[in-house]
Write a structure and sequence with these properties.
210 residues, alpha+beta, 9-stranded mixed sheet, 9 strands, acyltransferase, transferase, GNAT_dom, Acyl_CoA_acyltransferase
C-alpha cells in the first residue's frame, strides 16, 4: 500500500493572534520549529519533539501540528499500532492508530484539538484507512482541566467526533477495565469489507480465539 500524504492547512483566530494548523508535516520542517515547553503529557518536550520527527519519517507516519509562529503548540500523530498491542496482530496495512493528541495548556479552549483532527481528515488518502484510537482515563489531564473523568470523556469524545471517530465496542482488557476507557475509530469510505471484518476480529479477540 502506498501512503500518499497531501498537505492541508487552515488557521484559527484566537485572542492572542492566529494559529496555523497544518500537515502532514515532513520531518525536516518539524526539526526547524520550536516545541512548546507545556507539551509534557507523554514525555519531556525535547524527547517528544524528537519522537514526532521520527514518526513523520515513517512511510505511514503522519504528524499534524498547530503552531504559533515558529512554535509547535499542539499536534496529533498517526502511525501503525504498537507491535506489542493486539491492534498490530492482523498486520493490516490500512489500519492506523491516532497515537497521541496534545495541546499546550495556554492554548486549550480554542478548538485546537478539533481543528487538528479536521485538518487530518482533509487528505483524501485517509478514506483508505481505518483510523483508531484507544482512550484510557489515566492518560487524561483531569487536574489541569479541572474536570472529573466523565466530563473529560465527554469533551474528548466530542473532539474525536470532529475527525469522524466514533465509539466502537471491544473486549480489549485494558479498555474493559474501566467504563470511561474506550475505543474510537473512523472507517474510511474506500476501506474494503475484508479489512472491516479483520478489524472486527481484532476488536473481539477473545470471541474469535475459540
Amino acid at each position: 500500500m502506498k501512503h500518499h500524504k497531501t498537505y492541508h492547512s487552515t488557521s484559527i483566530q484566537t485572542a492572542a493572534g492566529p494559529l496555523l494548523v497544518e500537515g502532514p508535516v515532513p520531518p525536516e520542517d518539524l526539526a526547524q520549529y520550536e516545541f512548546h515547553e507545556g507539551l509534557t503529557a507523554f514525555r519531556l518536550p525535547h524527547e517528544q519533539h524528537k519522537a514526532l520527527i521520527e514518526i513523520a519519517g515513517l512511510p505511514e507516519g503522519r504528524i499534524i501540528i498547530a503552531r504559533d509562529g515558529q512554535t509547535i503548540i499542539g499536534y496529533v500523530t498517526y502511525l501503525y499500532p504498537d507491535p506489542l498491542e493486539r491492534w498490530s496482530d492482523g498486520n493490516m496495512e490500512d489500519l492506523l492508530e491516532l497515537g497521541a493528541i496534545e495541546v499546550a495548556p495556554g492554548y486549550r479552549g480554542c478548538s485546537v484539538g478539533k481543528t487538528l483532527l479536521t485538518v487530518s481528515m482533509m487528505d483524501e488518502q485517509m478514506e483508505h484507512y481505518i483510523i483508531m484510537t484507544t482512550e484510557y482515563y489515566w492518560h487524561w489531564d483531569l487536574k489541569g482541566m479541572k474536570k472529573d473523568v466523565w466530563e473529560y470523556r465527554k469533551i474528548m469524545e466530542k473532539m474525536m467526533n470532529a475527525g469522524g471517530l466514533v465509539w466502537f465496542a471491544t473486549d480489549e482488557p485494558e479498555i474493559s477495565s474501566h467504563p470511561a476507557n474506550c475505543l474510537m475509530a473512523r472507517i474510511g469510505r474506500h476501506v474494503s469489507q475484508e479489512s472491516i471484518e479483520q478489524f472486527d476480529r481484532l476488536r473481539f479477540y477473545q470471541r474469535f480465539m475459540y
